[in-house]
Amino acid sequence: MELIQQLVNGISLGSIYALIALGYTMVYGIVKLINFAHGDVFMVGSFVGFYSITVLDLSFIPALLISMIVCAIFGVLIERIAYKPLRNATRIAALITAIGVSLLIENGLIYIRGAQPEAYPNDVLPMDKLDILGVSISSQSILILSVSIILMIILQFVVHKTKIGKAMRAVSFDSEAATLMGINVNNTISATFAIGSALAGAAGVIFGIYYIKIEPLMGVLPGLKAFVAAVLGGIGIIPGAMVGGLLLGVIEALVSAAGYSLWRDGVAFIVLILILIFLPQGLFGKNKREKV
Amino acid sequence: MKKKKKLAGVFLSLSLVAGALAGCNSDSKTSSSSGGSSTSGDTIKIGANLELSGGTASFGQSAADGLKLAIEEINKEGIDGKKLEIIKVDNKSDAAEATSGSIKLVSQDKVVAVVGSATSTNTLAQVQVAQDNKVPLLTPTATNPDITNKAGKLNDYVFRTCFIDPFQGTVAANFASDDIGAKTAAIYVDSASDYSKGLAAAFKEAFTANGGKIVAEEAYVTKDTDFRATLTRIKSAKPEFVFLPGYYEEVGLILKQAREDGIDLPFMGGDGWDSPKVVEIAGAEALKNTFITNHYSPEDEDAKIQDFVAAYKKKYNKTPDAFAALGYDTGYYLADAIKRSGDASPEKIRQALEDVKDLQLVSGTLNLDENHDPIKSATILEYVDGKQTFKTKINP
Amino acid sequence: MTTLKNSKGFWLSIVLALIFFSVMQFTISNGMLNPFYINTLMFIGINIMLATSLHLIIGITGQFSIGHAGFLAVGAYASAVMTMKLELPFIIALLAGGILAAVAGMVIGIPSLRLKGDYLAIATLGFGEIVRIVLLNIDYVGGASGMQVSHLTTWPWVFACVMITIIVIRNFTNSTHGRACISVREDETAADAMGINTTYYKVAAFVIGAFFAGVAGSLYAHNFYIIQPSNFGFLKSFDILIFVVLGGLGSLSGSVLAAILLTIVTTFLQDYPETRMIIYSLVLILMMIFRPQGLMGTREITTLFTGKKTKGGPKDGSHNTVA
């Protein structure tokens, strides 16, 4: 019974990783840039949600939407200002810029409001406990999982069935050829950042509701873990990010369950290195890859 | 195009150098305005190396507020016509920053004493600086025994205003056995904190001595956010009582997640819980049936305590927590020592700090044992509807 | 001809450095320099060692490593165990710190055989974090609360270590081996085709770089009284990376210069912790946008006067230098 409870714990933790990883994998798939700032967009989303709920007195859905919109704009701004000038520069220059943007967002927020944590109100969503055969599942963890899955399905639909999705796949495949085919590469990349950042914003609000405590450095570790999840599932593959996130959450829960909670973060990185060495294309990567 | 880039580069390098120079400038300004020997003139300079930002900022800021209030009150009369001046350094809740901050205070600002950090780890990082430079270090709230006495060797320049970890842990263990009537207990410790580990060790010793049994010992690290997996482990060990000697940020999350997972056991912790944030994060409901050991209670009806609470509320518009009270007491302890020292030299202040006897403070009557550790009473508080209520006071 | 000029500049800088050392030593032993400045000076020295050792891995060999704090941590802890637990002399601690870090360098060098660019970067970052978490869980070295270390680092030690590091790395770069490393950076496939053992040189760069980072770690541990796993997180790795990139990838004197400048800037901005990081990150972003090749580009100080480019570096703004 304890094992099932631990799996439930792992899945609710993994859903958060999955939500962040969805945006990560999209951005990496299209511009081949480890967007370190993605975790911080997640953090900003969390704070936007917090202020929408406490200051503007909004309920869950409007706060979620506002946070997604603000983050989408924020993501596009970051891309236009910091990353676009470096699109043809070396990879290291782009990566350093991403680190710089990440540090700027974190410390900018600390400068504005201080480093102290903030607590989400406890009553944003009704909190029910379901007891199924001694396994307790909170209504919130079900909510997180379902939001992640719904967003993943929407994303999959956008990428595969819409025009902009087609453009994204084309740019990801070969951006020069895409330009020749009349695709506006700049707009497509911006759209990718907008969607990815909106997902991070949604993840931020949900994280806040589930874990209550938010603070300016909260995005750092989940950001890295989400990247691990994206690599685990195969970078650029949307269902891969979802599965990678859930798997990582479950692995972490099992490590804690075995009594090695202090090794939990280490295990995540060991998984990363093993995957990179032995299965660099990830779990879902195939020879004929479909990327976005 | 290339030329343009080059120019931009040159400009950037220049701005970097300018930044460096600006840094030098601002620094030399502050040091020259307050230059010269520390005891000359009308002010006596004391340093404060506290957690003003970073993970345990809420403790450092409270202690700083309490200290500031005390210094303002003392400066109304002055000490033999001289005023005290605090020079603050922010150690960002980081041990290496705490070390270099203390070096700066001692060698650059030439303070006569340093008020050390609010947490044990950051204070430990300064002990050697104080010993090497022969400047007293006085911590308001760091409770780890090693700070004043490491392996039988007394750090003669280091003092504290609070009681030490073993005392808190023992009080908690006796409370668990006698008042709660628990036979089995789980310990959930923050392994990144000397303070938490110190309390846990003392609790374990006293609880087993009382005939109790520790059925689970688990650990987490500061900044963790998901504790459900470990809590599930604790739940299946079926303890009657959980000892959780952590700091407020994680404690709040742990309590919330524990209650959500259906763990309705009594939880108990130390003064690390003492922050309004713990109520915000956990929620009043989750705090039901939880207790802490603390240095004082703002609801204690002692006149000295009530005067302090009133003055603090007037200045900051909030109820002082234990960190603020100890910061305040530290100000008075130090002022008392400076007064008795005569010439306010670090060496004489050290002697005066050591010679303290029956000093009346907000957190009780202060006397030191041979290890420079205060002998004081502890207060047990219970959370009722998210508010701390005075339960009992235990004398050493 | 150019080599002669280069070596002239080289000897000139050594003489200058020795003069600088004597002046500093004189002021320190006469108590003219207060401990705050001595502390800053030693910190600069340690940072120079870290910057130049990473320069060898990234700037010369082109292996994008962002886990350098891991080597620093291994060196710091190894040396602290030597002096504090085994009570061995400081010189042995220094060497032990370097050697253990070099072993760690070999361990992380092996995955680098298979990984490139971003993937290598993220793997080394993971490695750095693993080192930190392992240290966190070893009670022998104090776990999360760390080890208290006595203060043994003195100015002559720091100076000697810095000089040795710079000279070794400079000579390595200018040797056949160094040129082989540069060829790995420029085009690994081509280097392979030319008969260069790329595997060997990649691991060699990691081992040498890690060794000096480990020695720097020993100095670090014995300078700051206490070491904790939290001192060696990936932010520390980023700091070191920033020295190298700001100085100019491929320029040894650039990384030295950047280490000196940035240490001074951050030390003097210590009273304003939040703005310090904002300035820091802004400089980083603007620098990358307007001058991605860093302060010095790939040039060295010694060639600045002659106006010639070293044969070591690629042309400015070239797209495929690193990663």
Automatic annotation (TrEMBL), chain A:
It is found in: Cell membrane. GO terms for cellular component: plasma membrane. GO terms for molecular function: L-isoleucine transmembrane transporter activity; L-leucine transmembrane transporter activity; L-phenylalanine transmembrane transporter activity; L-valine transmembrane transporter activity. GO terms for biological process: D-alanine transmembrane transport; L-alanine transport; L-isoleucine import across plasma membrane. The chain crosses the membrane at residues 7-30, 50-78, 90-112, 132-159, 191-212, 224-255, 267-284. CDD domains: TM_PBP1_LivH_like. Pfam families: BPD_transp_2. The keyword Electron transport does not apply. It is a multi-pass membrane protein. Keywords: Amino-acid transport, Cell inner membrane, Cell membrane, Membrane, Transmembrane, Transmembrane helix, Transport. Belongs to the binding-protein-dependent transport system permease family. LivHM subfamily. This is Branched-chain amino acid ABC transporter permease.
Automatic annotation (TrEMBL), chain C:
GO terms for molecular function: branched-chain amino acid transmembrane transporter activity. GO terms for cellular component: plasma membrane. It comes from Peribacillus butanolivorans. The chain crosses the membrane at residues 9-28, 40-58, 65-84, 90-110, 117-135, 155-173, 200-220, 240-265, 277-295. PANTHER family: HIGH-AFFINITY BRANCHED-CHAIN AMINO ACID TRANSPORT PROTEIN BRAE, HIGH-AFFINITY BRANCHED-CHAIN AMINO ACID TRANSPORT SYSTEM PERMEASE. InterPro entries: ABC_transp_permease (IPR001851), LivM-like (IPR043428). It is a multi-pass membrane protein. Keywords: Cell membrane, Membrane, Transmembrane, Transmembrane helix. This is Branched-chain amino acid ABC transporter permease. It is found in: Cell membrane.
